[in-house]
Amino acid sequence: MNERQIGIWLYQNNGGDSIQNEIVRKLKEREIDAITGVDLGKAIVSNGDISCDTVGNCSYNLNKQIDLLFSYNASESSPYQNYLYQALSKVMPLINNYEAHTLTEDKFQTSFLLKNSGIQTADYEMCYKDDIKHIASTIQKWPQMVCKPTNGYGGAGLTKIDSKSSIEVINLILKQINLKNIYIEKYIDYDNTDYRVDIVDGQFVSCYGRKAKDGGWKTNIGCGGSVFLREPCDEIVKLALNATKITGLEIAGVDIIYDREKEEYIVLEINGIPAFATPQQEKMGLNFNNKKIDLIVNMMDKLTA
Q1: Average pLDDT over residues 39-67
Q2: What's the whole-number mean pLDDT along residues 219-246?
Q3: 92 in the same domain as 8
Q4: Domain hosting residue 142, numbered range
Q5: 70 and 90 part of one domain
Q6: What is the rounded CA–CA span in Å between residue 160 and residue 153?
Q7: Number of domains composing the chain
Q8: In whole numbers, what is the pLDDT of the chain averaged over residues?
Q9: Could you say which of 163, 186, 209 is where a domain stops?
Q10: Percent residues over pLDDT 70 in the chain
Q11: Cα–Cα distance measured from residue 224 to residue 228, given in angstroms and rounded to the nearest whole number
């Protein structure tokens, strides 16, 4: 067994298993062992130890047997896992680090920080769910707007609202999506496409485009959007790098759109677990996986040296 061990929990669908195998292989070349299947949802805490059964039903004392945890599986995360993730952040490096991970899980906290750091984002309003007066005034403020959960991913829970809607209709929508805090963004006049820019360890990795399905407005793949090849200009890359640096993420997928009304690029969202290219996407020309893997492995090596 090598002196250093990395714990990995990475999604296995859409080519994730092959990505994991390549990360493990490249770590081994550097005499670093990898423990895969470190699902904190199955971990047990006893006194000062967090133990977890992994692939092959081997049990590991995480805070004593691994030097770094690489957690990369948004679709299966839970509050319990995040709670243990926070605990482990006190005793070892994590990718992404806990503070940045928590920040970018929350759309309001991210937008608030970016706007106050000089990064253009969508205009927004937020209030408590019972503040009907402010909700009503916000509805009249913009022709169209999007009500979002402050957390979540993949476009889940996004609801488009028209300023002609009555407050009764809005209340019904809000009850259906069960929000405590009402976060509303001005709907941006854009061409229904975006730029997804991948950043790892402060370096530009790749860019591709996403477009909404016919008649739709959400570019998220889970909502029917599709991927296409797209080259970024220097302004887009710089914007993505600056936004990532401000949030503190080691790995980020920055979603950027062009606001046709203001005639400028804006950061719409920042994703802390941007997917690798799937085998189908690689066939269409998205070839950034190897570069992304190399940068991640370099980071693991550096953080555990």
Answers
A1: 87
A2: 93
A3: yes
A4: 123-186
A5: yes
A6: 16
A7: 3
A8: 89
A9: 186
A10: 91
A11: 13
